[in-house]
Queue: 2 jobs
Job 1
Amino acid sequence: MHYPEPISKLIDSFMKLPGIGPKTAGRLAFFVLDMQEDTVLDFAKALVDAKRNLSFCSVCGHITDVDPCQICQDKQRDGSMICVVQDPKDVIAMEKMRDYNGLYHVLHGAISPMDGIGPEDINVPSLLTRLQDEKVEELILATNPTIEGEATAMYISRLVKPSGIVTTRIAHGLPVGGDLEYADEVTLSKALEGRREL
């Protein structure tokens, strides 16, 4: 079936989102047509604002609208600990449990030779610079419990070991093959409590 061009473009745009197939994209497009014009304009503005006004923190790599981000600026946080995660979504998951008061470092990925992603392709060099400049006593490796996440954690722990900084890995209270962003607060809290030195 051929739709008028504006709705075809809208359906195609929705299909660019992860997990959205043609049927869902069609339903969303027709839902948008039924919305009030003010609501549609607010929605479009929110999309554009998020894209234009968000960037990555120059210190930790977390997503932010101010640089450095609010976590890095917070003097109440424990600067002796840095929790290393793969994605900004993981910082948000860790913050939800409210048990961790240290700083973060976002790698923006994991080492994956199969996909051609090496240590230089993720945010490892800036982590090493931070470890030289800041008074860090413990590095908590909270990469996902996948093959890539484990490889990344082992690589970082080997790099950091000679510096004398204690390197720990969150415990596997998380399911192997899972992502931090989908874990509940209790599971994350248990995983953080059970971290071990590598």
Note: The chain has a mean pLDDT of 91.
Job 2
Amino acid sequence: MLRYLAAEGDAYRKQHPKARRLPPIYPLVIYHGKGRWRAPRNFHDLIAPLPTVLAPFVPRFTYALHDISARTNAEIKGAVLTRLVQLAMRWIFSKEPLARLGNLLTLIEQVEDRTTALEILESLLRYYVQGTGRVEERDVRALLEQNPTGDPIMKTFIDRYIEQGKQAGRQEGRQEGGAAILLRLIDRKFGPPSETVRARISSADPDTLLRWSDRILTADSLDAVLH
């Protein structure tokens, strides 16, 4: 927190080089962890030992703590945007993250500014799918398909999101199929491929698989195929 406070002050000085005072900074911690918050609330509590004679020379400050973890009974209040952010953080450790994501989608529908709603939806999906890895992409797409919206902007985004997933699935299917065919051809012509070769072929992109498949028709060795 001390680093954050100092960084804010430094940034203000760069933006206002002629200023002779610093603005007040309100230090706030929003906590949504699994365990109980145990960090000291006062900077002096981090210093040990702290002789009384030195206390006046050590920074002394505290911070506001807003605990929205599952262990608290904090009621999430405020405007829709505020509730969205807090609930998204609080529910990220839920045992049913997909169901919670559905609840958040319902809240997004209440955001009046549709451009803002779209940005929130995009960030929310990235947070839950890519940021935490607790929700599968295919499950999110199924959830979006089950939640029709009458808003043209939102519907366009959801349709595009779902279609991208279908395209990715088709490409992945083609890649897996191409790898399987190439491995079978290698087995027929050069004998069973090693695990190293299998891993290399399985991770290759479609263009590379096609190039290797062309080479195997005339190649005299496996190295000539995969070089």
Note: The chain has a mean pLDDT of 79.
